[in-house]
Amino acid sequence: GGTFWLERTSRFETAAHDGKQRHDPDFIVEHFETRRFSPEGRLQHTLDASIMRHYPDDDTTEIGTPSLMYYARTPPTHLEARRAWVSKDGKEVRLLDHVRMTRPASKDQPELTATSNELRVFPDDEIARTQTPVTLVNGLTTLQGNGLEANNRNQSFILTGQVRGLMNRPASRIKK
Q: CA 20 to 30 Å from 162, out of 6, 80, 132, 150?
């Protein structure tokens, strides 16, 4: 029994040197843009960035300075960050570091911005979520929460957790 134990504990396992366990990019693309179209041929969203690195070990992609634009609604919604991670099926994009979501002002609504340090985006569903602190500014209204769920299709923004802020009603809605 002792000989068997000694033989097993002193055996050196030889690691496979085929590169499958390494997290090295198999290709790098600089200054690129991708576009997604609806079945009817309408532009749904674009993603452009300064650099993209694809990793074959887990089939994920890392992106530098991503900019994601949704065109399905008017006005279009713009998301940007310092970096991003894209799942292997492209169904989830994690925007990281200085994330900013902007919907420009329209004739009916003021500009809306949301800032956070992380935002999980599901491009095909037009949904974005975070469980990190977020600041939402809509015209003169500023709200802060511990998380956010944004739905671009119905233009809803739900702050979660402890929410605080200053709401400003437009003068036209104040009764005199």
A: 80
- As a dihedral over the C-alpha atoms of residue 84, residue 85, residue 86, residue 87, rounded to 10 degrees, the angle is -160
Q: Is 25 exposed, middle or buried (0-12, 13-18, 19+ CB in 10 A)?
A: middle
Cα gap 143→158, rounded to integer Å: 11
Residues 6 or more apart from 102 whose CB is under 8 A from it?
Answer: 77, 78, 79, 111, 112, 113
Give every residue of the chain whose pLDDT is below 50, as ranges: none
Output the CA angle 165-169-172, nearest 5 degrees.
170
Task: Determine the pLDDT at residue 66.
Answer: 95
pLDDT at residue 161, rounded to an integer = 92
pLDDT, residue 143, reads: 95
Q: Helices (H) and strands (E) in the chain — how many of each? A: 1, 14
Structure tokens at 44: 């749904």
